[in-house]
Amino acid sequence: MIMSLSSIAAVIKGKLSAGACANREISGFYTDSRNATDDKLFLALRGERVDGNSFVPALVSKGFAVMTDDESNLSLNGDIIYVDDVRSALQLLAKYYRETVINSIPMVGITGSVGKTTTKDMVSLALSATLKVHKTQGNFNSQVGLPQTVLATPKDVDCAVVELGMSMKGEMERIARCAMPDISIITNIGYSHIENLGTREAIKDEKLKIAEFSKRNSILLLNGDEPLLKNSELSDRCRYFVSVNDDKCDCYAKGVTETTNGVLFTACVFGKEIAVELHVKGKHFILNALFALGTCHLLGVDIYASAKMLASYESDGKRQHIFEKEGHTVISDCYNASPESMKAALDVLSAQKGRRIAVLGDMLELGTESERLHKLVGEYTNGCADVLVTYGEFSKFINQNAVVVEKYHFDLTQKKDLGVFLKDFIRFEDVVLYKASNGINLSEIIV
Q1: What is the distance of C-alpha 128 from the center of its chain?
Q2: 20 to 30 Å CA-CA from 429: which of 8, 67, 293, 313?
């Protein structure tokens, strides 16, 4: 995106400060004042702890352009756009850009309680077999991140793959209006954000808003193993279902074999059969790969070439990153955690040789369901781990319900003690899983 300051102001119904350089070209946005650059616009967002407006005077004095919802900043001598609400203005600009500049570019939108980023990366990789693809960087999927991803989509790409996250009612509508997907994928309906939404049914309803605000003739790719999605009513949208093993779905797997390096299976995609080899451990990756191949079929990409691309897929540093460290194996999966992803990670640990140690921290944002869901994970550890080490406030319930050979618990005040314990406890050829919500900072304890 390259737009003049005055063009941006016109689209979002903003007000330029007196003396602003109306023709100044803007090519992007940033929210961290430390990342200031001449060609981008600072978004002065009001956060829970920091108000971005406090950085505006210093940035303007150095010649940087800003968007603010603090009217007093209009008195500053610089390139300033004043709006009623910065976040809403950014979303309005993204919607305009999608409708007028990149409307012809197919957009794949991905949401779900678990697996959004993995699916986004696999879909992008598979499509890149024959297409030039723009995708969400990292997990830039929020009310601010998604609009920036849309606005960063070049006009010369063949397709875009974007991730849409939400945690509150009404959020999916706002960002789905920005993306207007041609193909919408819902990976699953879990317990993430149940603290805010109350029930899994409410989470499902919010996720399905991606379809309501997608393009008129858009397609839905849904998890056929999830009853809440399989039985949902969306009569005005074309729906296809993806399953790990249900051969009544449009895309499914058969002949699944777990190897020392990953997973082998035959993908049955809209009547075609393709041999797939994934070099990541865990059957849960099969569903992500099927979503990718189903998307390729729908967009006319050679799925045989796409399957070859999937063989090169690797998890990022915090999502089930498996590596050797000082004679033992580490499974680092500390980006996020929910009951579903905890179980998937424990399945991977269960298949390992050697003494299996599960270091599990709190799953956040589960609200009144927190105790019950942590207890369920505790029951699931039985048979998956030889040693259980829990860390945090709610993980004590995992510990209480687990029946393993050895188990230990550390509260949040014992972070250093946990690190010392693990360093002394872990032996040569052990396999150690680290899994918790990102807010627990368990990755800092990996030894």
Answers
A1: 20
A2: 313
